[in-house]
């Protein structure tokens, strides 16, 4: 009994020592959870822009394989949740609402065209009858008005919802990926195209600002700022300013060595052109095979071969570029996880389309209520992985301690702060300056206390 008591006491003392030293199982579990927690997005930890596009394209590919409104709505919900959890306050991050509205417009127009022009889907359920407009004989096969069938309207709604889901998935990529960083990540073979797009993106807002400024100046001078009479007065100064900026930018880029390229043998140039062109054609053909309903199993092999050929051509073409990159974006483990989640959703839907086509494309003739296939729906939930592993925007890390929106995470150990407390030299900059009057008042107070104490002792 004494030996058992001693062993129990030793184990208890050892567990307490491990707990005090931070090596116990509880502390190891907390450390593991802290390591899995998504970091705050900074310039060094931000997710690669290409990962967001691969994730969105995976969801779009899955949406193209189904007309089930339940699955399409689930894909839209997943994309919307990830966007709301990981988008920033940048201007491009506000594009998701526009794509949602565009998707709604697409659905409404698709149903409206089916009502006015009819549908090729047959049926027996007549909703209502519109006045039919007689058309000439050379327009045979086209009608305006007539009977509106419930089967045709439902089929048009399913088809429009699928197209709207594709647009919303692309809108999610636009809202999450920084376009400037995406252009900086282009391979060396597309260097000139990336520079042209960046210049265009930079000049377009300036042109709009010039137009607004010219119109305001004309209003202040009492001249018309609308209509054809104001076009010449606004367009000429705007074009003149754009031309001056273009010349200045061209001179600056020429002085910095833009447009230089290394010498490459003619055989390498011809091989690069053949690989790039053939690869892009293979990518187009393979993508069509995957997105089309009757693409068969040839779409994926053609797409893989095309991607491989295009990658080889871009790599060879990148040898001509002599530029260097300042702080390139890294493709880390989190980027792989985000891209893999989109690819997993697309793969699951491709397999489901071959195994259970009726579940992904519910029939409209006869009218039946769509059912939710379980494992394709579970595969869609894999698209929520970026909301967990992707770095969270800086605004999400605020604890709300003040009304001024200050970042309070470095001074709270319970929240996993990894930096010095606020006010110390380090990540938050130099310590705040002290008020000189405060120290003077303290010295005066101490002097008065000492004097009072001396007088009381005397």
UniProtKB/TrEMBL annotation:
* CDD domains named among the record's database cross-references: EcfT
> Record keywords: Ribosomal protein included?
no
Name the residue ranges with Basic and acidic residues bias.
445-458
Q: Which membrane topology describes this protein?
A: Multi-pass membrane protein
Q: Name one GO cellular component term.
A: plasma membrane
Query: Keywords on this record?
Result: Membrane, Transmembrane, Transmembrane helix
Q: Where is the composition biased (Low complexity)?
A: 8-22
Annotated region Disordered: where? Answer: 1-25, 394-458
| Taxonomy, superkingdom | Bacteria
Grouped into one coarse class, the protein's main location is: membrane
Q: Where are the transmembrane segments?
A: 66-83, 95-117, 189-208, 273-291, 297-316, 336-354, 374-390
Q: Where in the cell is it found?
A: Membrane
- One Pfam family cited in the UniProt record for this chain: CbiQ
Answer whether the UniProt record assigns the keyword Transmembrane helix to this protein: yes
Q: What is this protein called?
A: Energy-coupling factor transporter transmembrane protein EcfT
